[in-house]
Amino acid sequence: MSAVLEVSGIKKSFGGITAVDGVSFDVHEGEILGLIGPNGCGKSTLFNCILGQLTPSGGEVKVDGKVVTGLRPSELNKLGVSRTFQLLQVFPKLSVRENLILAGQEHQGNMASRLFGPSDAGLSGAADQMIGFFKLDHLATEQAGGLSYGQQKLLDVAMAFMGGPRLVLLDEPAGGVNLTMLGDLKERLAAINREKRATFVVIEHNMEFVMSLCTRVMVMAEGKVLAMGKPNEVRANPAVIEAYLGH
Amino acid sequence: MSAATKKYLRIAFGLAVIAALIFVPMNFNRYGLFILSQWAVMTIAAMGLNLTLGYAGQVSLAQGAFVGIGAYTAAIMTTQGLPLIGALGVSIVLCFAIGWLLGYPALRVQHHYLAFVTLAFSTLAFLVFRNEDWLTKGIYGISNIPRPHLFGFATNKPLPFYYVCLGSLGIVSLAVWWLIRSPWGRAFVALRENPIRALSLGIDTRRYTLMAFAIGSALGGVAGTLYAPLTQYIDPVPFNLSLSLDLLMMVIVGGSGFYFGPFLGAMIAVLLPEWLRFTQGYYLMLYALAVILLLIYSPTGILGILDRYLTERRTKAASALREVAKPKLETAA
Amino acid sequence: MKSKIIAGLMLAALSGGAAFAQGAPIKIADVAELSGGGATVGNNWKNGIDLAVEEVNAKGGVLGRKLEVSHADSQSNPGIARAQVQKALDGEPYVLLGPGYSGSVKVTAPLAAEAEITQIMGGEAAELTQGGNKYLFRTSFGQQSSMPKVAKYINDELKAKSVAIVWVNNDFGKGGRDVITKEFAKYNIKVAADLSTEAGQADFAADVSKIKAAAPDAVFVYVNEEESARMLKELKRQGVTAPLIGETTLVGQKVVELAGDAANGARGHVGLTTDAPVDLVKAFREKFVKKYNYVPDHNGIKGYLAIYMVKAATEKMGKVDPKGVANALHGLTIKAAQEPGILMDVTFDEKGDIDRQGFLVEIVDGKQVIKQVLPKLN
Amino acid sequence: MSNLLDLLVAGLATGAIYAIVAVGFTLLWQTSQTINFAQGEFVMLPAFLMLAAMHAGVPFWLAIIFGILLSMLLLGLGFKMLLVDPMLRHGVLPLAIATMALAIGIKEAVKQFFSAEASPFPSIVPAGDISVFGRLVSLQSLGVLALAISAVVALTLLLNRTSLGHQMQAAAQNPTVARIIGVPVERMILLTFLINAFLVALASLLITPIYLAKFSSGEVLGQAAFIAAIVGGFNQVRGAIAGGLLIGVVDNLAAAYVSTQYRAAVPMLLLIVIILFRPQGLLGRPEERTV
C-alpha cells in the first residue's frame, strides 16, 4: 500500500503559541484515519496547514509522493484533495443540484469550456447520482438554505466527493447531526470508501462514530501526536485515557 | 397554478415587455425616446456592475470611469471616421484589460480595498479625460459625434438609435444571462457567498474575481460606447465619481445579485427624477427621499422584496417536503 | 411594472404640444443648471428670468399676451441638458432660454436649430457662435470679444511683459485662458506661469507661491467669485504686489464682500455688472435684491436681459412667430431709452454675438471705480 | 526653502479641516460600520441652521448653541434612529447608498429652502493673520488646527481614561461580549453618533468662514475627508488626523511641484500605494481575518 498523504514535521505557531508542534503521519490508500483529541489540541489547524488554508511554520506535506506544501487550497483540490469544514459550508441560495455541480465543475474542462460549454458542465448526471447516493432525492431543486441541518450536512459531505477526490479530509462530519441521520451518514461514508477506494481523514468528537468507521485512529494533544493505532489499541492506550477519554 | 403554467405566464409576460419596448416607443416624442435610450445604456453599465458586485461580491467605485473610457474611445474613433463597431471592440478590450490590472492590487488585501483602489482610479480617469487635451479635447469635450450606419441604415434619428440601444441591451442581456447560468456564474456566486469554501472546491477565486471585475468593467465600456453617440457630445464632467456612485445606487436599489435588478435600478435612477420634475425645485429632494425610504423598507432593493416573499413561500414548501422526506430516510437507515 | 412606466411616458408625451392660440400666454422654455456644479450660475439665470417675466406681465405682457416660462434642470450635465432641451422643444416653445454651460449649449444648439427655435443662452465660450448657427444668441460678451480688451489693457496701460494666468479648470475658465493666451502672443507678452485651479478649491497657497516664484509683471485671474476671493486673500498674505487683472468674476461686489481689504487694487473688464454706473442697472439691482434677498452676479442680469430680448424682437415683428424671432434679432439694436429692461444699448450681429458698452474698473477702498469706459463699437 | 515652509503651513491648515471631518468618519465606522457619504453635507448643514437662527433675529452666540443642539438632534439622534438602525444589519452597502441619497437630499433642501448662493459666515476666530516662523498664517486656520488637535486629545482621553470610554471601546470592538458583561451597547453607539454630530457642528462653525455657507461645499470636503480616513486608517481616530494633515500637505506639494492640473491625482496615487503596502492605513490596526 502506497501512502496517499505523507505529513512530516508540520509546525504552526500563532505569535508565541504553538498550535501544531511537529506532527508526522502517513495515510494509505483506502484507509479511514480518525483524528481525535480534546478541543484546542490543534486538529483543525493541522487540517488547515495540510490543505493550504494556513501556511505551516515548518514541515512538509506530500500527496502521492509530491510535495504540496504552500499550494493554494484550489490547487490542492485539483490534485484530488477535498475537504469539509467544521461548520456547515453549503451555498444556501443555490439548489442542492447546483451546489453539487459547483463542487465538481472545476474538475471538468477548462476556463473556456466552463464559459461556453453547457451550463451544468456535464455534471447533471453525476450530481443526480450523488443526490441519490446520499438519499437527497426530492430535494434536488430546493435551495440548500431551506434544508434541515442534517440534510445540509449530508449535502456538505456529498459536495466533497463531487470532484472524484483521492483524499478527503472531513472536519467533524457528525457534529450536530441527529442520531438517525448519523447512522445514515456513517453508512454512506463507508460505502464510498468501499466502492471508490477513497481515502479519508476524519476529525470527530463522537467516539462511537470514529471507532466504528475508522480503520486507524490518531490522537492529538497539545499540538503533538499522542497515540496512533487501531481503534481498539487506541481505546486501550493508558496515555489516551489519561489525556482524553478519561474526561 | 402548476409550475408549467407559471413558466408560460412568465414567458408571456417577458414577451409582452419586450414587445412593449419595441412597439410602444414608436409613438414617443424625441424626449421620451432619448430618456428610454438613456435607460437602456445605463442598464448595460449597471448590469456590468451587478456582475462585479451582485454576483462576485466586489465593490467597484469605478464603473462610471469605465463608461467614460468607452465613451471617449467611441467619440475619438468615430469622429476620426472609424466605425462604431470597431470602437466597441477597442472599448471592450481596453476596459477589460484595465479592469484586470486594477484588480491585482486589490487581491493582495482584503476585499473592500478594491472599493478604495477603484475610487482612486475613478478620480485619476477623470483627470486624464480633462487634462489630456491632445487626446480628449479636455474640458471642451468632443462634439458632433456621429451615430452609426448599421446594415446600410442611418441611425441618426431618435427612433432608430433607440433601437440600436435596445438591441445592444438585448444582446448584453443574453450574454450576461448565459454567463451567470454557466459554471462561471456559479463560481461568481460561490466566491461572493463563501470564498473559503469555494477555494476548497477547486475554484480559483483570484482568477474568477479578476474575471468578474474585468467583464463588469468591459460592460461599462460597452455602455460608454453607446453613450457617446446617444448624446453626440461628451465632456469629462458626467464621468466623475458621481456616475460611479449613481450606478452603484442603481444596482443596490434594483436588487444586487438579481438578474433583473439593474433594469429596475436604472429605471429608478433615470426615469423617477423625470416623473418627479413636475414638482420643480423639489424633484431631486423627493428622489433622494424615495431612494432612502425604499432602502429602509427593503435594504436588498426592489427585487429583494420579491425575493423575501418567494423565500418565505419556498421555506414553507421545503419544510413540507422535509416532513415527507423524513420517514423515507428513517426507513432507509 | 414596466408597462406602467411606458404608459406614464406616453401620457407625458401626449400632454406636450399646445398650440399658439391668440391671447393664450406665450410659452418660453428655460433649461438651466439648477443643480450640480453650475447651480449658482443656473439659479441666478433663472431668478433673472422670473423677475423680468413678472415685470413684463405686470405691464400687460408682449403684444397683449402674457409670458409663461417653464424651468427645467440640466443638473449641469450635458446629457441631461440634451434630454431637457429635447423635452422643451417637443413642447414647441416660442423661444428656448439657456443653458449656461458651454458644453451643454454645444450639445443642444443643433437640436434647437433643427426645430428652428431661437435659443438665447448664457454660454461665453468663443466657439459657440462661430459654427454658423442662425438660431443661437448670446446674452453677454463672448470671450472672443472680452479677452482682447483685457489683453490690450494689460499691454497698453500696464506695459506688462510677462503675465501669470490663473484659471479655473472648467469650460468657462479654460475658454478664457485659451483666448487670452493667444492675445498675449500677439503682444509678445510672456506667460510666466499658467496655473489651473479647481472649482471649489479652498487652498491657493501653492498657486500663489508659484506666482511669486515666477515674478510676473501682472496676474490675470479668471476663476469664479468665491475662489477669486480666496485667491485675493492668499495673494495678499504672501505679499504679491503685481497688479491683478480679471473679469467680472474678480471685481464683482460679491468678491469684495468675501475678500474684504484683499480685493483692493484688483482691476478688471466688466461687461455686465450690477455695479455699473448706469441708473437702469442700479434700479435692476434694487428690484432683484428686494425679491431674492441677495445681489445677483452677471448671470442674473443675463437671464433678465434674455426676456427683454424676446420682448424687443417680438415687438419688432409685430406678431408672435417662433420662426421669425431669430431673424428679428439679427442686426437688431435695442436702445435702453425705448426698452428700459435691456439696461444698456445693445446690438446683435449676424452670428448672434453681442455688442455693448463695457467698463474697466478697479476696486478702491472696497468700491468699484470705473477707470475707463469701453464704448460700444457701432 | 522658504517656499516649502509656506506650503507646509498652508497644507497643514487645510489638512486640519479634512482631519476634523475625517474623525467623525472613523468614529461611525468603528462603532457601527457606517460609511457616511453625507459627512461633507453634515458639515455644511449646521452653518445654515445657525444662519437661519440668526436671520430670525437670534444673537450669534445663541445661534451657535441652537445650531449645535439641532445638529445633534438631526444629524446624531435622527440620523441614527431613522436611517442607520433599520438598515445596519443588512450590511455596509445599502446603508452607504442611503447616505449618498441623504447627501443629495440635504444639498437640494439647502439649495431650495435657503439659496444657491454662497453666504458669508461670521467667524468666531478673529479674521486676520499672525506670523508663524515668519510666515503669515490666518487665525482661522490656526483655530481649525487647534480644534482638530483638541478634539483628538479629548476623544483619546475620553476613550482611554474614563469608564465611559472603556465601555464605548468594548461596544465597538466586540458588541456581543460587551453586552454580556453589561455594557449598554446601544447607548454607547448612540453616544458616538452624538459625538460625531457635535464634531461636525463644531467643524461647520470653524470651517464655514473659510469655505462659505454654500449647499455644495460639502462635496469637496466629504471626499477629501473620506480619502484622509482611508489613508490614515479607518479604525483609528489618530489615523484620521494624520491622514487629513497628510492629504492637505501632499495636495499643496503636488500643486507646487508636480502639476496644478493633476494635483488631485497625487493623493490618489498615495492612496493606492498605501493600500498596497499598508492596507490598514498609516496608523490603523490590521483587521482580523476570519478563516
How would you characterize the largest beta sheet of chain D? Answer: 2 strands, antiparallel
Percent range for helical residues of chain D? over 70%
**Alpha carbon gyration radius of chain D:** 19 Å
Low-confidence stretches of chain D: none
Q: Radius of gyration of chain B, rounded?
A: 22 Å
How many H/I helices of chain B?
14
Count of individual helical segments of chain D:
11
Which series of helices and strands of chain B comes N to C? HHHHHHEEHHHHHHHH
Mean pLDDT across all amino acids of chain D? 87
Give the proportion of residues in helices of chain B. over 70%
Distance between the termini of chain D: 51 Å
Low-pLDDT residue spans of chain B: 328-333
Please describe the biggest sheet of chain B, giving its number of strands, its sense, and whether it closes into a barrel.
2 strands, antiparallel
Query: H/E order of the elements of chain D?
Result: HHHHEEHHHHHHH
Beta-strand percent range of chain D:
under 5%
What is the tally of beta strands of chain D?
A: 2
Q: What oligomeric assembly is this protein in?
A: heterotetramer
Mean pLDDT of chain B: 91
Overview of the molecule:
The complex is a heterotetramer of chains A (247), B (333), C (378) and D (291). The two termini of chain A are 36 Å apart. Chain A is globular and about 55 Å long. In chain A, helix 3 crosses helix 5 and helix 3 runs parallel beside helix 6. Helices cover 37% and strands 25% of the residues of chain A. In chain A, a hairpin with a 2-residue loop joins strand 4 and strand 5. Chain A is of the alpha/beta class and 247 residues long. Chain B has a domain of 213 residues. Helices cover 77% and strands 1% of the residues of chain B. Chain B has 14 helices and two strands. In chain B, a hairpin with a 2-residue loop joins strand 1 and strand 2. In chain B, helix 4 packs antiparallel against helix 10. Chain C has 378 residues and is of the alpha/beta class. Helices cover 43% and strands 20% of the residues of chain C. In chain C, strand 6, helix 6 and strand 7 form a beta-alpha-beta unit. Chain D has eleven helices and two strands; from the N terminus they run ααααββααααααα. A two-stranded antiparallel ribbon of chain D has the order 1-2. In chain D, strand 1 and strand 2 form a beta hairpin. In chain D, helix 2 runs antiparallel to helix 3 and helix 5 crosses helix 6. The longest helix of chain D is centred in the first third of the chain and has 31 residues. Classes of the chains: A alpha/beta (247), B mainly alpha (333), C alpha/beta (378), D mainly alpha (291). Chains in contact: A-B, B-C, B-D, C-D. The interface between B and C is large, with 41 and 40 residues.
